[in-house]
Write a structure and sequence with these properties.
The chain has 1 helix and 5 strands; from the N terminus they run E-E-H-E-E-E. By secondary structure, it is mainly beta. It is elongated, with a radius of gyration of 17 Å. The chain starts with 11 loop residues before the first strand and ends in a 13-residue tail after the last strand.
Length: 98
């Protein structure tokens, strides 16, 4: 299936979400937001499996945002995929998971 690696037709499941204020001097000046999720295993789904038997390719996305300076770092599986410096409260960015 050509879509198996892109996640185009694979259900997504959440593993964990955390949002932490982590500034060095004043906690609320920096935020670390982390999402952990996975794409279901298509073979397990096709075989009628359910629950944890369907866990597949799992990922970790972390946003580190300095509220005061506007620096924003986005990591996917530990690799930098985006860096910007903007005081905008909106971050709109997309990338391809490999």
């Amino acid at each position: 299936n050509s879509n198996a690696n892109t996640g185009a037709h694979r259900p997504l499941y959440a593993i964990d979400f955390t949002a932490v204020a982590c500034g060095k001097r004043i906690a609320n000046t920096k935020r670390r937001v982390r999402w952990r999720f996975g794409f279901a295993n298509p073979d397990a789904l096709a075989a009628g499996e359910t629950g944890t038997a369907c866990r597949g390719e799992e990922h970790d996305v972390t946003l580190v945002w300095s509220v005061t300076s506007g620096k924003r770092l986005l990591l996917a599986d530990g690799q930098e995929v985006h860096y910007s410096n903007s005081r905008s409260a909106v971050l709109d960015f997309s990338w391809t998971m490999r």
